[in-house]
Specification:
alpha/beta, 5 helices, single chain, 3-stranded mixed beta sheet, Rossmann fold
């Protein structure tokens, strides 16, 4: 089993990357990391990762799960046809597709959340991500982590462990 975590080169959310990665690896899932740039990627809190692939090199066929990690840097993947294509390929090939924090908006804009239950980051001041989900046909639940068949979404970093466990469960069931 192989999983790909997609992070922004700058300002990916550390917990949303490192915690699911650790859960998967501890349970024998091989993980790779992709980013919009090669070279050291730096998280919001200074965590560092070395991407194995650039976004352009990603082939969804090579993975059982594709995971978009959130954080403010994830906005890099909004309005990005390469990230949309990766999400669409994952669904077409019946792969697991997961996203946490702001990243479910990428899935929504790729058109893969239509009529799917999902969650996304929001705050009292900013509900724009929920609006994006709904405008693109997603059924926003407001839950911390939600699995709808092979699509898994997580609300925010507070639920990184639950998100990682949900991915593991779908991968190993």
């Amino acid at each position: 089993m192989k999983a790909l975590l997609i992070i922004a080169n700058k300002n990916f959310r550390d917990e949303e990357y490192f915690i699911p990665k650790q859960i998967l690896e501890k349970n024998g899932i091989e993980t790779k990391t992709a980013s919009n740039e090669k070279g050291i990627a730096v998280g919001t809190f200074g965590g560092e990762a070395s991407p194995d692939l650039s976004l352009e090199e990603v082939n969804a066929n090579n993975f059982d799960a594709i995971i978009f990690v959130g954080g403010s840097g994830a906005k890099t993947y909004l309005d990005n046809e390469i990230s949309y294509d990766i999400a669409r390929q994952a669904i077409q090939k019946n792969k697991i597709l997961a996203a946490i924090c702001i990243a479910p908006t990428i899935l929504a804009k790729a058109g893969v959340l239509n009529k799917k239950k999902c969650t996304v980051w929001s705050s009292n001041m900013d509900k724009s991500a929920i609006k994006t989900i709904k405008e693109n046909g997603g059924e926003y639940t407001g839950k911390s982590v939600i699995t709808d068949k092979n699509i898994i979404t997580g609300e925010n970093a507070d639920f990184a462990e639950e998100f990682g466990q949900a991915i593991l469960k779908v991968l190993t069931d």
